Amino acid sequence: MIQIQNLKKSFRTEEVETLALNGVNLKVAEGEFVAIMGPSGCGKSTLLNIIGMLDNPTDGSYKFAGHEVGGLKESQRTQLRKGNLGFVFQSFNLIDELTVFENVELPLIYLKMSKAERKEKVQKVLERMKIAHREKHFPQQLSGGQQQRVAIARAVVTNPKLILADEPTGNLDSKNGIEVMNLLTELNQEGTTIVMVTHSDRDSHYAHRVINLFDGQIVTESQNKPMKAMV
């Protein structure tokens, strides 16, 4: 699904050039659960943004599902993201002015889905995330764990092939963090590919493979016997 070769990303100011990624090579197969770890500033989020087509590499090759992403126009990248990618962020990134239902519905509106079909899909995913009873509430009326459930519902409502999760439990207590990791594990067991950036050793044990970045390079890679969803 993901093929990255000799990927580089630099940020330039008038005085200095910073190399955020320096020759990254990575393959992620369909159905894998991969955790990316490393200290702050090592390039984890930069790599995730490039995989998510939110940023472009300075050099190297990135293929998603056979498409060379670097050569695509912005409109083509947007089209490729639609329905294929779902994003889960540490800070939830919900829209405060929209209800839970409306936040989750938004990606389906972008896909120009009918109102009846949108309603059915949103209600189904909210029930699965055990947050349907909050569908008319606004984000600020929810706990952190509930907000992350809504964010995951929004990410998966289009049934994407790939979920990109950036520190998905970073703002949660341990109980809610375990619940979120259980949800991601269940989605992966159903066939969704997951690439997750994390600082958490505990969370990394849910993944099939752990990649460690340091100074923009992959320094170690290890296979896991992934944890099962915990009760």
Can you characterise this structure?
The protein has seven helices and ten strands. Helix content is 32%, strand content 28%. 38% of the residues are buried. It starts with a strand and ends in an 8-residue tail after the last strand. Residues 2-231 form the ABC transporter domain. Belongs to the ABC transporter superfamily. Macrolide exporter (TC 3.A.1.122) family.
Task: Give the key terms.
Rossmann fold; 4-stranded antiparallel beta sheet; alpha/beta; 6-stranded mixed beta sheet; 7 helices
Number of helices: 7
Query: Quick one: how many beta strands?
Result: 10
CATH topology label of the domain at 1-83 and 159-221:
Rossmann fold
Structural class: alpha/beta
Brief description of this entry?
By secondary structure, the chain is α/β, with parallel strands linked by helices. The chain has a domain of about 150 residues: P-loop containing nucleotide triphosphate hydrolases (Rossmann fold, 3-Layer(aba) Sandwich), CATH 3.40.50.300. About 30% of the residues lie in helices and about 30% in strands.
Write the layout of secondary structure elements.
Blueprint: E1 2-12, E2 17-28, E3 33-37, H1 44-51, E4 59-64, E5 67-68, H2 74-81, E6 85-89, H3 100-110, H4 115-128, H5 144-156, E7 162-166, H6 174-189, E8 193-197, H7 201-204, E9 209-214, E10 217-223
Parallel strand pairs: 3-8, 3-9, 6-7, 7-8
Antiparallel strand pairs: 1-2, 1-4, 4-5, 9-10
Helix pairs in contact: 3-4, 3-5, 4-5, 5-6
